[in-house]
Amino acid sequence: MISLAEMQRRCYFAKDMAELRDSKPSDSKELTASDEREEGVRKPQEDNPLPAFARDFPNNPELRLLLVAFEQGRHDVVREGAPKLAESTDNPDVARAARELRSRIEADPLAIKLMIGIFALLTLLTSWVYFFHKH
Q: What per-residue confidence (pLDDT) applies to 111?
């Protein structure tokens, strides 16, 4: 039996996926070469709107939805949908692409190790001051 929280989570996920399916690319103004020089931006390529890492991904509708969610910053949708897609697909390329897309939103392992080291150093210094420093 499915709990109420699980049903709500599934409904929200289905709603998010439906919104992504129905969403259209935002209408952005065309940039000229002078705008590019002034603003330091590059004109988007109309022939391939995908990010550079995703250009070799296979053409799969569910994967495209996850890429749109990634582009829109909806990492919660990618975090939930990519493992499901990787498990449910028969195509190993789609599964590999879904796993790679999921890994793109993970925290950097070096950053995690540095945060743990900083926390340990802070704990050590605080303990040293508290216990060994004369007040």
A: 95
Please check whether residue 66 is in contact with residue 101, taking contact to mean a CB–CB distance below 8 angstroms: yes
Q: Is the pTM of this model over 0.85?
A: no
Q: What is the length of the chain?
A: 135
Domain boundaries, the chain: 1-26+51-104, 109-135
**Could you identify the residue written with the tokens 């499915």?**
2
- Cβ atoms of 56 and 11 closer than 8 Å: no
**Segment holding 48, helix H or strand E:** none
pLDDT digits 0-9 by tens, 40-99:
444 444 555 678 888 889 988 999 999 989 988 899 999 999 999 999 999 999 999 999
Q: Which region, left, alpha or beta, applies to residue 128 given φ > 0 means left and ψ of -120 to 50 means alpha?
A: alpha
Identify the CA nearest to 67 among candidates 89, 90, 94: 94
Kindly give, in sequence order, each residue whose CB lies less than 8 Å from that of residue 85, ignoring residues fewer than 6 positions away: 62, 63, 66, 94, 95, 98
Other beta carbons within 10 angstroms of residue 31's beta carbon come to 14
d(CA 60, CA 94): 7
